[in-house]
C-alpha cells in the first residue's frame, strides 16, 4: 500500500469572462504558483491519528478536518472527488484519508473548487497505482464542479490542469502557441467575488438592451481572438492593450467594483502593460501584465500597497 499524491493549480481568465456565457470564446491561463496538493493514504494507516473515523473516509483541510460524511456543504465537491474516483476505480469499500493543502483562495475566480477536485481525484487514483487519462480526469473534475456550481462550463476544469494557455470555444479546448514569454501578476482584492449575481445581472442587461449588450459581448469575443494572435505573435504591448480594453468593456457591463478598479489603477500606476478584472467580478481578482520578472515584482508590491490581500506572479512561454 502506498501514499497517493497529486497537485494542480489555480487558473485565471485572460480575456472572455461573461462574454463566454453568451457564446464568445475565452482564453484561460494557468496560475502555476497557486498550488493545490492532495495527499491520500489508506485510512488504516492513520486511524490512530484520526479517532472515530475508521468507518468512513477522513478529510484534513482548512475548511474541515474530520470524518468525510460529516463535512459541511462547502466541501461537498471534495466528498464527490473521493467517492466518484473510488467508484470509477471499483474500490468503494477502501477508506482513505485525504489531506488538502491549497494556496488557491476560494470564491476569487481562481478555480479553487476545480483545482481541489483535480488534485484529490488524481491523488485517490494514485493510491491505487492508477494514472487517470486526461478525459476521465476531466469528467471526474466536472462531476465535482456540478456539485459546486450547478452547470460549469468546463473552463475551470481545463485551466487548473493546463500548463499553457487554453483557448475555449463552444465547449472545446485548444492549446495556444506562444511567440514570446509573458509575465502576469494576479492580485486578490480580498473580497469574495459574486460570479452568480454578476452573470445574472449581465443577462438582465442583455434582456433589457439586447443591441448594446450584444455589441459589447461581440467586442469582448473579438478581443479574445485578437489576444490569441498577440500570444502567438509574441506582441506583449498589444496584449496589454487588449486587457485594458477588456476591463473597460466589463466595466460597461457593470461587473467591476471600486476594489477591482483600485487595483487596476495601482497596476497601471506601476506601469503595467495591461490590467483588468478577471473572472466573475464584483470582487475577486485582477490580472495584470508586466514587462519582465523585475517589473512584475514592482507591480506586485504596488498592488499589495494598494490593499491586495495576496499576489501571484505567473509566466507562460518560458521555453520560447
Ligand atoms: O469567477 P470565475 O473565474 O468562476 O469565472 C466566471 C466566468 C464567467 O464567464 C463570468 C462565468 C462563466 O460561467 O463562464
Automatic annotation (TrEMBL):
Q: What is its EC number?
A: 2.7.1.36
Please state what class of enzyme this protein is.
transferase
Name the major location: cytoplasm
- Specify the pathway: Isoprenoid biosynthesis; isopentenyl diphosphate biosynthesis via mevalonate pathway; isopentenyl diphosphate from (R)-mevalonate: step 1/3
Q: Does the keyword Disulfide bond apply?
A: no
- Domain GHMP kinase N-terminal residues, every copy: 81-156
Source species, domain of life: Bacteria
Which parts pass through the membrane?
none
Q: What InterPro entries would the database entry show?
A: GHMP_kinase_C_dom, GHMP_kinase_C_sf, GHMP_kinase_N_dom, GHMP_knse_ATP-bd_CS, Mev_gal_kin, Ribosomal_Su5_D2-typ_SF, Ribsml_uS5_D2-typ_fold_subgr
Annotated GO MF terms: mevalonate kinase activity
Any one Pfam family match given in the protein's UniProt record, by short name: GHMP_kinases_C
State where the protein is found.
Cytoplasm
Keywords (alphabetical) are: ATP-binding, Cytoplasm, Kinase, Lipid biosynthesis, Lipid metabolism, Magnesium, Nucleotide-binding, Transferase
| Residues in GHMP kinase C-terminal domain copies | 231-307
> What protein family is recorded?
Belongs to the GHMP kinase family. Mevalonate kinase subfamily.
What is the official name of this protein in its record?
mevalonate kinase
Question: Source species, please?
Answer: Curtobacterium pusillum
* Phylogenetic classification of the source organism: Bacteria, Bacillati, Actinomycetota, Actinomycetes, Micrococcales
Query: Which gene underlies this protein?
Result: mvk
